[in-house]
Amino acid sequence: CDDVYSQQPSLVHEGIFRIKPRFASESFDVKCIFENNIGWTVIQRRINGTIDFYRGWNDYKNGFGDLRTEFWLGNEKIHLLTNQGRYILRIDLQPWNSPIHIAEYGKFGLDNENQNYKIHISQFRSNISTAGDSLSSLWDNTNGISFSTYDRDNDNLFYDNCALTYHGAWWFTNCFQSHLNGAYIRSPLALQNTPRNGLHWNTYQLYHSMKQTTMRIRR
């Protein structure tokens, strides 16, 4: 999306565009957000619970949902994008009872499917992040962790299947400090001490499920 913006600097806000990463065999559509002369590629969005995120490995590999509303871009596409060079990850978290908070990381990428789409995440930007670090902290560092779905259990617990237990898919350790692909829980239940199968970012609101989330990347 940064390349899209550099070619069309008059673009404002957001849109859907077709791109072809360097090592991709074919092009595909992505949602772009344009802010402060920067183009972000959105890899995940949750806004209203219209799309079921409790899905298996192949759905998360290929992507699912609607780029206009809720979706997961697809682990294979995310790998192809981040394999082109160094990428930044920004996560926007919208609670039910307060303004948007963000978490940003200076380095983000996914390995290929043979490596179970292992995540590489580091360089948490504490100076601009207001939601805390729930991906690479010492408490629960997902750096180097494989992706897990209910039908492909790659978490660190030999006695449990985190994706199955918490109805989602993520880079589960044992089990998580963050999980943004869980069940969509509406207010006011989301503001109670909900079961841990919602949209969680523990360093911000430990037991509350988020109203909206967006994961976006750029070079």
UniProtKB/TrEMBL annotation:
Q: Where in the cell is it found?
A: Secreted
Q: Where is the Fibrinogen C-terminal domain?
A: 1-219
> Per its UniProt record, what Pfam families does this chain match?
Fibrinogen_C (PF00147)
GO biological-process terms attached to the record: positive regulation of heterotypic cell-cell adhesion
Q: Which domain of life is it from?
A: Eukaryota
- Print the keywords alphabetically: Disulfide bond, Glycoprotein, Secreted
The keyword Kinase is annotated on this UniProt entry:
no
What Gene Ontology molecular function terms does this protein carry?
A: extracellular matrix structural constituent; protein-macromolecule adaptor activity
Q: Name one GO cellular component term.
A: fibrinogen complex
What CDD domains does the database record attribute to this sequence? FReD
| UniProt protein name | Fibrinogen C-terminal domain-containing protein
